[in-house]
Each structure stands twice: as C-alpha cells, then as structure tokens.
Amino acid sequence: MSADNPERTPAKPQVLLNHHLKQLKLPTFLSEYDKLARECARDGVDHTRYLLRLAELELIERERRMVERRIRAARFPAVKSLDTFDFMAIPSLNKMLVLELARGEYILRRENIIALGPSGTGKSHIALALGLAACQRGMAVGFTTAAGLVHQLMEARDEKRLLRFQAGLAAYKLLIIDELGYVPLSPTGAELLFEVFSQRYERGSTLVTSNLPFEDWTSVFGSERLTGALLDRLTHHVHILEMNGDSYRLKQSKSRRRKVQQTPGEETPATGLVDPNTGEITAP
Ligand code: ADP
Ligand code: MG
C-alpha cells in the first residue's frame, strides 16, 4: 500500500475522513465536524456527545432538504401558509378543522378535502397552505388546477403515455386539484378526470376546491351519472371546508380605498398617484 512507502507522505487522516464522509453522503458531518470538535474540546464535551451533536445536525439538515425537495416537486404556483391566513375574515370556515387538517393525519387515513365557496374567499390559499403543511410532514404532494390536469391527461393520452402519467399521479399522497368548476369539461376530459378520482379512491388523499355547490357539478362533468359516481367516491371520507363570504381581494382593496379617502387634513391625492383598481397610493 502507498501508506507503507516511506518515500510518500501518507494521506492525512483529515483527507481520508473528508473522502469517507463524502462517500457516506454525510455533508453536514463534513462541513461541521472540525468546528464542532473545537467547540466540544473547549467546553469539555465528551466524544459520544460530540458525535451525537453531529448526527443531530445531519438529521436536521437532511429533513430540511427533503422538505425543500417536496415543495419543489409539488409545483405550487405560490408558497402560502396558514400563518398568513386571517381566519377572522371568513367566519364560515372552521378554523379548528383546518388546524387539525394541517397535522396531516387525514392523509394517512386517505381522506379527502373539498373547499367550497365563491371566488376570492381564500380557497386556493388554504389549499396551498395545507399542501405546504403536508410537504413539511414529508408527504409527496402534487398541485394542479382541474383545467391544467385535464389538459395534461389529454396530452398524455394522445402521446400514448397515459398509464405512466396516471402512475405518477398515484404516487402523490395528496393531490390538490384547484378550481374545479371554472371551465366545463369535454366528455373525454370529464372521463379522464373521473378516472383520476376513481383511482385515488381509498388509495390517496385528494383536495378539491370549487366555486360551485355540489348540485352544479353536473354542469362541469356534463353527465349526471358520472357526477354521481364521482361525488360518491370523493365524499365517502371527506372534510368539507365551507368558505362562504365576501371576496378577500375585494374587501382589501375597498378598505385601502377607504383609508385613502379618510386621511384627515389632507387633500385627496391627485389622480395618477392612486392605483384606480386597488386604491393603493403609488407615490408619496
Ligand atoms: P379563491 O381561491 O377562493 O378564489 P384565493 O385563495 O386566491 O381565493 O384568495 C385571493 C387572495 O386573497 C390571495 O392572495 C389570498 O392569499 C388572499 N386571501 C384570501 N383570503 C384570505 C384570508 N382570510 N387571509 C389572508 N389572505 C387571504
Ligand atoms: Mg383560487
């Protein structure tokens, strides 16, 4: 071995250790062991505790990377959390239920969620926040809109890779289908979407948001028989989130406009300084 050769400098243990830690895929051990060793020597921490600290750091980092991967894989159009959701703005929504759902146990039980309410009441926000919470618990999540999903299903079918695409969907522990009801579906689109629900039944959780009450879902799927069968599966184990209220967007822009108008002792700002849509002052 080269180490036996007195002519050559033997590899420093550090070089070897760095190599082994890389091989073992322990990047946090690699980046932290030296600094932590010095700290532990200084504080008189024994070897076992030193190793324990390193192992804990590695685990924390590994979990953080896993959550980040899950969030990227979910393809959320925006990252929203429950921390930024104002429950006071929508009294019809059962806050306790939402907080309970954020714990993710319904996903282990393969239960579904349906969020119903008119536009702007925070359905997508809640769907995104519950999706994020599921990612943080290490679950595989997928986010899509009903129209987007149907488009992808049709494309996959035309390209003869429907089975593979469906297998990809089945791998999600939670599939979020946003905005069901905004666009009526073609008969083929409706069939393909029905198959998704059918394949997920009791195998994985699905979260659907819709602006339409159940009675009107037939207008989206075009067939009473299909809608009935779909609702039967989707609502067998389901948590319904009632989100009836005024549009949050509209309320916010109205209150901003009011604030602008109510500012005392000041002239109404000249037009051009106020955004006509939101009432926001765009210049001082
Ligand atoms: P919907 O999907 O029901 O049409 P969104 O979830 O897209 O509504 O909400 C519209 C906007 O208002 C988003 O930017 C969302 O983050 C915000 N929003 C809605 N409701 C609330 C709320 N209760 N607290 C905080 N932000 C909200
Ligand atoms: Mg929405």
Q: What is the topology?
A:
Elements: H1 13-23, H2 27-43, H3 47-74, H4 95-101, H5 105-108, E1 112-116, H6 123-136, E2 141-145, H7 146-158, H8 162-170, E3 174-180, H9 187-200, E4 205-210, H10 217-221, H11 224-234, E5 238-242, H12 248-262
Parallel strand pairs: 1-4, 1-5, 2-3, 3-4
Helix pairs in contact: 2-3, 3-6, 7-8, 7-9, 9-11
The structure holds adenosine-5'-diphosphate and magnesium ion (MG).
Q: How would you explain this protein's 3D organization?
A:
The chain is of the alpha/beta class and 284 residues long. Helices cover 52% and strands 10% of the residues. The chain has 12 helices and 5 strands. It has helices spanning 13-23, 27-43, 47-74, 95-101, 105-108, 123-136, 146-158, 162-170, 187-200, 217-221, 224-234, 248-262, and strands spanning 112-116, 141-145, 174-180, 205-210, 238-242. A 5-stranded parallel beta sheet has the order 2-3-4-1-5. The structure holds adenosine-5'-diphosphate and magnesium ion. Residues 123-124, 178-179 line the site of magnesium ion.
